[in-house]
Amino acid sequence: MSDKRFEQLEEKLAYMEMANAELGEEIFRQQKEIDSLTKAHRTMLERIEVLQDTAAEGGVEGGAGQGERPPHY
């Protein structure tokens, strides 16, 4: 194998190693973002469930029950 061909292969290998490292870092960053969004999603689902339970119990603030018109109507 000629020296020129060997140098070309070394350059390609170095480029591939660099690209592989960059992709690994990007995957790590994206996984952190996915974890953060998953946590936020769970929190929102819990809040929605609490609000639905509160509304079902008739505990809506303002004193007006479901279906009742506010006093200004």
Structure explained in plain terms:
- There is one protein chain.
- With about 70 residues, the protein is mainly α.
- It is built from 1 helix and no strands.
- The protein is rod-shaped, with a radius of gyration of 29 Å.
- The mean pLDDT is about 90.
Number of strands: 0
Q: How many distinct helices?
A: 1
- Outline: rod-shaped
Would you tell me the overall average pLDDT?
89
Low-confidence parts lasting 5 or more residues at pLDDT below 50?
none
Radius of gyration, taken over Cα atoms and rounded to an integer in Å: 29 Å
Distance between the termini: 91 Å
Structural class: mainly alpha
Give the ordered list of helices and strands.
H
Helix content: over 70%
Residue share in β-strands: under 5%
Task: Give the oligomeric state of the chains in this entry, treating copies of one chain as homo and distinct chains as hetero.
Answer: single chain
Largest sheet: none
